[in-house]
């Protein structure tokens, strides 16, 4: 664990090398630099796991701290640069290194253009360094460095194809949206410092537990600001827009942003401060509402999309909400298992979609594809495994137990509406992936010219497929004493699992009727006004972008045009003109006539005297 600082230094140094010299290095060498960087981080993570397990004493919490230096000091306020490793940060370190290595390896097999290769590895290294800064530092002020680094890295990755105006606009949009909620995070940090008089996370949790009352006003505002600050990084509605813009980046970059780095930032912040969030039931209730809106929004939009990238993106967005459902019912250890399952499934879905698009010569519209089961049987089987995980296939997939326990936890907390929406989200996500499978693999063939994919590209996919099964339901996680371990109510849970299995079987039946062999009666039902309205609403992303432009963009443009002529400068010009007029009048009074001067002096004296007498 003495080499822990290298997990940040190595990717940062690699980023600087590739940004400076990447254009002049051969593509194969750039790939070697990128993959080797991630391999070093993975090896350090393995060494840390070995050290951690060998030094852990039963019924104790092992916390390793490495003090590096003091950044700055103002009076009694000191900001130290130190790295801290405990069970929670070790889990995130392992996840980032493992999935980062798989994504880097997949990118080496997938990317072909020279500019794509060096820009992807350069910007991804900055992203890895930023997220590792967040999970390893023990000071909220220093964490802001990694927080800002993630925003910059996301901007760079989305804007890799910056010569296209649409991509540049999307990168700027993502950068702005991420910074809108960063304001709330900074406010929350200020409130924490004012209350606890420290920014050390360990000291904050201790002092908050000792000095603050549960559900007090200050706790509510602190946790609310922190949650709002984490919303954009976690892509929750309505701060999800940057998540859909990631589709403009190369698929390995999409995998990195959607599954194993950016999303981790907001999730880690809430998990690290979980003892603080447990003290505010109102914030947890708001978290439930936001999660429900995100599930409905994302899963309904995924159901009508035709672009493979957008289908994948909105399916992943819907799955993120189950993490925050687990937070809202205070089942923190279950949320970690949900995070692992989400990362596996989303990465697997993006990899499989990337190979599908590559094989079909870059075609992304599912309506222009069909009959691929004969050409790509191996890819078809992979999508079936993805379907099993997204649909929470009863007793086969790990997500059946994890999502089932999350929704059961909501029901046990008497949040029936949120639990019902959670079941609906599983139903709609299942329909979305079945729709993709039926149209792409079973319908009439429409494309006959295919590209070849390197067999080595499938290796990361085969590894991930294993982790979607029920063999890996719950990982043994070393979080005892770090996050609260909740006991799940088991009375009635077997009956609920039967209900969940029935919902999943219903989704299979509906998808078969709608997408496998749609007949004339189904077509008539789909042409009903209610369904047409639903399709238009979902195809327009619930008119969210229109609402965003109406409320924020258009008023900003109006003010910009109004201020184009600089009203303050015009006002200043009128003042100067008035001064000139007064000056010219006074100058004309200097006519050289002594009588006029004497009369002016007398009149002025009389006026001053009258003022002294009557005022």
Please tell me about this protein's structure.
The structure is a single chain. The protein has 615 residues and is mostly helical. Among the domains are: 327-518, no CATH class; 529-564, no CATH class; 565-614, no CATH class. Helix content is 72%, strand content 3%. The protein is built from 25 helices and 2 strands. The protein has helices at 6-21, 27-55, 87-110, 114-136, 140-158, 165-196, 201-211, 217-231, 241-245, 251-260, 262-272, 274-277, 281-302, 308-328, 332-359, 377-390, 398-412, 416-442, 459-467, 493-516, 520-526, 529-539, 544-562, 567-589, 594-614, and strands spanning 64-74, 77-85. It has a two-stranded antiparallel sheet with strand order 1-2. Helix 15 packs antiparallel against helix 16 (377-390). The termini are far apart. 45% of the residues are buried. The mean pLDDT is 86.
Specify the biggest β-sheet: 2 strands, antiparallel
**Assembly form of the protein:** single chain
Mean pLDDT: 86
> Helix and strand succession?
HHEEHHHHHHHHHHHHHHHHHHHHHHH
What's the overall geometry? Answer: globular
Helix content: over 70%
Strand tally is 2
Distance between the termini: 83 Å
Q: Key terms for this structure?
A:
mainly alpha, 2 strands, globular
Summarize the structure.
This protein has helices at 6-21, 27-55, 87-110, 114-136, 140-158, 165-196, 201-211, 217-231, 241-245, 251-260, 262-272, 274-277, 281-302, 308-328, 332-359, 377-390, 398-412, 416-442, 459-467, 493-516, 520-526, 529-539, 544-562, 567-589, 594-614, and strands at residues 64-74, 77-85. The protein is mainly alpha-helical and 615 residues long.
């Amino acid at each position: 664990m003495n080499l822990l600082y290298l997990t940040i230094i190595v990717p940062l140094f690699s980023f600087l090398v590739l940004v400076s010299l990447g254009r002049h290095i051969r593509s194969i060498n750039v790939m070697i630099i990128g993959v080797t960087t991630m391999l070093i981080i993975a090896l350090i993570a393995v060494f840390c796991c070995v050290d951690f397990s060998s030094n852990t004493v039963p019924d104790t919490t092992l916390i390793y701290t490495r003090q590096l230096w003091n950044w700055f000091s103002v009076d009694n306020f000191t900001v130290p640069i130190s790295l801290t490793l405990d069970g929670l940060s070790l889990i995130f370190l392992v996840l980032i290194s493992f999935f980062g290595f798989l994504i880097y390896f997949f990118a080496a097999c997938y990317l072909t253009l020279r500019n794509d290769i060096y820009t992807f590895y350069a910007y991804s290294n900055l992203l890895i360094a930023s997220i590792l800064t967040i999970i390893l530092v023990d000071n909220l002020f220093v964490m802001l460095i990694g927080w800002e680094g993630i925003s910059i890295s996301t901007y760079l990755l989305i804007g890799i194809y910056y010569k296209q105006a649409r991509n540049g606009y999307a990168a700027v949009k993502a950068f702005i949206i991420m910074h809108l909620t960063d304001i709330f995070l900074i406010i929350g940090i200020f409130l924490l410092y004012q209350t606890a008089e420290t920014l050390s996370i360990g000291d904050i949790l201790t002092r908050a537990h000792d000095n603050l009352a549960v559900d007090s006003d200050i706790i509510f505002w602190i946790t609310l600001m922190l949650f709002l600050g984490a919303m954009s990084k976690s892509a929750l509605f309505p701060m999800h827009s940057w998540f859909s813009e990631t589709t403009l980046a190369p698929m390995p970059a999409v995998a990195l942003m959607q599954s194993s780095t950016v999303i981790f930032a907001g999730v880690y912040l809430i998990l690290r401060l979980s003892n603080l969030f447990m003290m505010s039931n109102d914030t947890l209730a708001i978290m439930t509402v936001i999660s429900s809106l995100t599930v409905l929004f994302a899963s309904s939009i995924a159901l009508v999309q035709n672009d493979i990238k957008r289908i994948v993106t909105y399916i992943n967005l819907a799955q993120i909400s189950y993490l925050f459902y687990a937070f809202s019912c205070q089942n923190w250890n279950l949320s970690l298992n949900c995070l692992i399952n989400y990362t596996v499934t989303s990465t697997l879905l993006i990899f499989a979609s990337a190979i599908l698009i590559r094989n079909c010569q870059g075609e992304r519209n599912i309506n222009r594809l069909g009959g691929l089961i004969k050409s790509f049987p191996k890819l078809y089987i992979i999508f079936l495994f993805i379907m099993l995980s997204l649909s929470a296939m009863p007793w086969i997939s790990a997500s059946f137990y994890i999502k089932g326990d999350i929704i059961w936890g909501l029901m046990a907390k008497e949040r029936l509406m949120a639990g019902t929406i959670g079941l609906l989200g599983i139903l709609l996500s299942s329909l979305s992936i079945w729709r993709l499978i039926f149209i792409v693999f079973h319908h009439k063939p429409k494309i006959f010219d295919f590209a070849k994919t390197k067999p080595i590209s499938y290796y990361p996919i085969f590894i991930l497929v294993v982790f979607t099964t029920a063999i890996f339901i719950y990982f043994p996680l070393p979080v005892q004493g770090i996050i609260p371990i909740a006991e799940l109510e088991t009375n009635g849970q077997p009956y609920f699992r039967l209900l969940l299995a029935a919902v999943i079987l219903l989704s299979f039946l509906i998808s078969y009727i709608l997408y496998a062999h749609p007949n004339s009666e189904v077509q008539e039902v789909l042409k009903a006004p209610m369904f047409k309205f639903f399709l238009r609403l979902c195809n327009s992303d619930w008119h969210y972008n229109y609402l965003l432009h109406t409320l924020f963009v258009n008023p900003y443009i109006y003010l910009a045009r109004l201020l184009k002529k600089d009203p303050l400068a015009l006002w200043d010009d009128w003042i100067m003109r008035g001064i000139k007029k007064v000056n010219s009048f006074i100058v004309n009074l200097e006519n050289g006539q002594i009588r006029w001067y004497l009369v002016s002096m007398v009149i002025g004296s009389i006026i001053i005297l009258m003022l002294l007498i009557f005022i």
